[in-house]
Write the C-alpha cells for this entry.
Amino acid sequence: MKSLIWMIDDDDELRRALRKMFQLLGYEVRDFADGRVAMRAMLAGEMPEVLFLDIQMPHVNGIQLLEFIRSRAEWDHLPVLMLTSESDEERVEQAIRKGADGYVFKPVSFESLQMAIPTAIERRQAAQGE
C-alpha cells in the first residue's frame, strides 16, 4: 500500500502539479484547498503519513493549523512540512519552533520533495524518541 500524503494549499495549479510529483514519487495523495476541511477530516479520524501545509492561506493559515495539530497528542507523530513562497526566514523559523519538521520553498522542485519527505519523517521519529 502506498503512503498517503496530504497537501493543504489554496493554489489550485500548485496542488495539481504537486499531486503529479507525489504520484511519481510513489505516494497516494489527498489535497485540500482549505485548512478547515482538512481539520474536520482529521477530527473525523482520517490521517496522512505526511502533511504539507501552505503557510499563507485564508481562514486557517498553515501556522495555525500546525499549532492545532501539535496541540493534540494523538497527532504528535505526524511529520509536517511547510510550503512557502516566502523568503522570510522569520516565518519559517516560527513554523519550525511550533513543530514543523521542515519546509519546501515554492516553486517546488521534484528533487526538493524527494529529499524533504524522508528527512521530515526522520526528524519526527527523532522528536518522538526524545
